[in-house]
Amino acid sequence: MKRQLGRVVCEVLLRTGLRVGEFTRLRRDAVRQIGAGHWLHVPVGKLLDDRYIPLHPQLVDLIADYRDRFVDPTNPLLLPRENGKPMDRHGVTRCLNNAATAAGIGHVHPHQMRHTLATQAINRGMSLEAIAAMLGHHSMDMTLRYAKIANRTVADEYFAVTEKVEALYTSDPDAALPSSAAGPEMARLHREMHQRMLGNGFCTRPPALDCTFESVCETCTFFQTSIAFRPTLQAQHDHAAEHDQPARQELFAGLLGDLDQSAS
Known about the structure:
The chain is mainly alpha-helical. It is 53% helix and 8% strand. The chain contains eleven helices and six strands.
């Protein structure tokens, strides 16, 4: 029974990104069928909202099997312990670490399951907005930390093609690097950067949306910049001041102020 409970704990946390408190409070009717799929209803939590998380069919079957075998149908909880009592943070941690010990990976904290799901999702192309909704983030600032993970994708793709590139130089210098050697993720990142990078930031407008603007990117809601572009923005601010363009000067002063505030 304990092995079955341990598997349920590990699978649910890894596949849903639930917080421990959310996991232990799940009600027996939390699994809902909406249309052709199943969703997990997560009730009001620490951020005072509720949400629905899509459930993989294998996870639906795993939860149903555990409940059929070990849970009294009248128990108000979805996944209590085998004795019917609620799981707590310590019990969840024990289940995870029993599995971690068996796998030879050492101590595991429950919140690492949440970070693992987000990391895997963003490295496979899931949008930050979707990740934020799934994890129950109220602010994108909480989700943006995972955007840094994409840098590892670049590094992984680089080293994956390094040997192929070196082979060209050592064997046939006239040979062309096959298009497949770049890797799908590197190709996607290169395409996005090539199409959407601006001189002083980035355009985050989805490629499917046409843009009718030509020279007002800084006032567009899709414009995004970072501290790396501060010298360019400063030069644009100074240019506006020198040419008596108060509106343009005020615009870049605001962007510079936002950068300085975020960096402090």
